[in-house]
Amino acid sequence: MGFSGGPEQEKPMSAFLELGIFIPIILFRVNENSVFRPLCHILFVRPGKTGMSENLQQPIIRMFHVSRQYGAQKVLTDITLDIEPNTFLLITGPSGAGKSTLLRLLYLAEPVSQGQIIIDGVNTARVSRRRKPVFRRIFGVVFQNYRLILTKTVFDNVALPLEVMGERPDMIRKRVHAILRAIGLENRLHAYPITLSGGEQQRIAVARAIVRNPKLVLADEPTGNLDSDSADIILNLFEGIHQNGATVIIATHDRTLIDKMGNRLIQLEKGALVGDFKKDTCFPESVNYDSESFAGLKSEVP
Ligand SMILES: Nc1ncnc2c1ncn2[C@@H]1O[C@H](COP(=O)(O)OP(=O)(O)O)[C@@H](O)[C@H]1O
Ligand SMILES: [Mg+2]
User: Fold this and answer.
1) For 40, 48, 201, 288, which has the most beta carbons within 10 A of its beta carbon?
2) Relative to the alpha carbon of 92, which ligand is closest?
3) What is the pLDDT of residues 68-92, one digit of tens each?
4) What is the pLDDT of residues 191-209, one digit of tens each?
5) How far, in Å, from the CA of 274 to the mean position of ligand 1?
6) By the 8 A CB rule, do 267 and 94 touch?
7) 3-state secondary structure 223-240
8) What pTM, to 2 d.p., does this model score?
């Protein structure tokens, strides 16, 4: 079961080796159109990832007729959705559509009003309050406002998820150094978040979310208001962890991110699921759609 510690706890060396592969890839992936594209097929295609066995797997997330309301206000209405393992899902829609609420429901930050959510085979309604922190270890989460711990250094912020998992200090040091090097902030190890720019803080927040190689990554508007350098670095981190097998779910209305990333896109409007599109690419390329109808992509929603 995914929430009892995850594979990274059982096999720390293999997790480290995976990071060892994935960090250089992030560094090399400077140019979207470089010779690296064919390489991703060679390096990251893993058994079960592209073959039939993947199709036989259960969805990692299943939502059945999920609604959420605050008092009389319906914020999410009757959402039914299956998300396959290793999907890179973008959730789009206008402000107030319910994107953040949907992520909060998945993270068990708040309960559903109606319906059911099954995550990694677990009916989330049955996760007791006491077990929620352990259950949440399946996730790496990037919150909208970073939520870095201001009294801890950059190193300690990124190291925290590994410390919680009880990883060895030498392993923690190596992994944190590797990921900070990948996001160009190794020289800010001892800095406090308050001394960093917004883009740098957001890079740290993403590094903290993925340092454990979580099975599921949730991010709420991770590139909002970022300079393009920081946005590119962050997108490469998400792409790296996705190529490494994780399921990535990002709420965004950032046009650049939508153009470049993801293999599935859902649209919310006033709390309802109004569009569901698939992209079939290894590294995302711009797809031919207009902003209203995503023409050229077939919606799964009738
Ligand atoms: N805790 C809350 N109490 C009452 N209304 C809320 C709460 N959280 C969100 N909402 C409302 O739910 C709707 C959807 O919000 P949200 O999920 O943040 O949308 P999005 O992320 O798509 O902009 C909005 O109308 C918002 O005002
Ligand atoms: Mg939001």
Assistant:
1) 201
2) 1
3) 999 999 999 999 999 999 999 999 9
4) 999 999 999 999 999 999 9
5) 18
6) no
7) CCCCCHHHHHHHHHHHHH
8) 0.78
